[in-house]
Amino acid sequence: MYKQLVEKKGKLAVIGLGYVGLPIALEFAKKISVIGFDINARRIELMKQGIDPSNELEKNDFEGCDITFTDSLDVLKEAKFFIVAVPTPVDEHNVPDLTPVKKASETIGKVIRKGDYVVFESTVYPGCTEDDCLPVIEKLSGLKNVKDFKLGYSPERINPGDKTHTLAKIIKVVSGCDAESLEEIAKVYELVVQAGVHRASSIKVAEAAKIIENTQRDLNIALMNELSIIFDKIGINTFEVLEAAGTKWNFLKFQPGLVGGHCIGVDPYYLTYKAKELGYHSEVILAGRNINDNMAKYVAKKVIQHIIKNNGDVKSSKVLVKGATFKENVSDIRNSKVSDVVNALKEYYVNVDVEDPHADSEELKHEYGFGLAEKIRNDYDAVIIAVPHSDYLLHDEDYFAGISKPQALIADLKGIYRNKINNRKYWSL
User: Fold this and answer.
1) Considering 65, 133, 177, 263, which one is annotated as catalytic?
2) Which of 17, 293, 294, 406 is deepest in the core (most CB within 10 A)?
């Protein structure tokens, strides 16, 4: 397979061209022939013009790439090596929604032929690739894994907004259904991953490795959030405590904050779902999830308490929320916990304005029911800096004085203005 690809006698296809799939497709397209497949025709047209719909890549990232963007199954049939990079969300009950990966499996089942390779990159619970996706492919294609085609798993490690830890610069975990497929898959990824690959002993091990990467981060952030609640009651600043503790060589430097996005706030539920299916009720992981999922309400409560104390009339109060994306310096709003803060404030009938230099107002309206403010007021009772965009680092205390009342609260969730706000009440997690 590797030889076919490098000699351009076979093509590699990436199914799902979101913030994970598109960078993978373009990186491979610098070395071999690639088919970029997505079911969203509008996105396909943008990519044909060298535009990344996720706003992560620049136009020059598309240059010099041997890639065909398509939503056609007939074109997809030209591929020999398939990479699946579709999303794996949870539903409103935090139950894994496997619809995207199963639909992608159906697509592969319609186009795969003998000798082909299929590698999933979507984050799933251990066993999902072989137990949930493989049967779909085999049923539709009439082919059998190992005998007729090869199955593998290589967890994505794309970090939106991160220009340092890119695909080529971080070690890639790979796995296959047998020894032969493991080596072939490893060699294919070594074409684009300069940092090298780690060969996992099985597909389940590779799946589990990915799921615990984000579960570990989730639990550590949950600890920081719980410490923040405790330290607030004591009357000390959490970031000052972390700064002091961080002087020890083995202290892990995590910070409190809202936990949203596609990975940290989602992946742990895939693991706890699988555990429950096997008869084990997770305690530590779910405890961490509970803390992080409730931080938005905690922030809203602190703001409301300040307003009641200093204004009295909550219904006439005005709050500005700065930042609406799921993390700093990205335009992606999916699974942003800022919406939970806004909704929690609105439950008290507070007038809420939202401002973000990266987010799209229409997307926010469609996803969460509110858009961006057309104009920033000068009389806010509280300003919440929910997302620490680099644009906000230019603000000083005169800026906040100009948009808020003298008794206003500046709620700086990530502590980017610590020791810089003196003319307003300042609070951080």
Assistant:
1) 263
2) 17
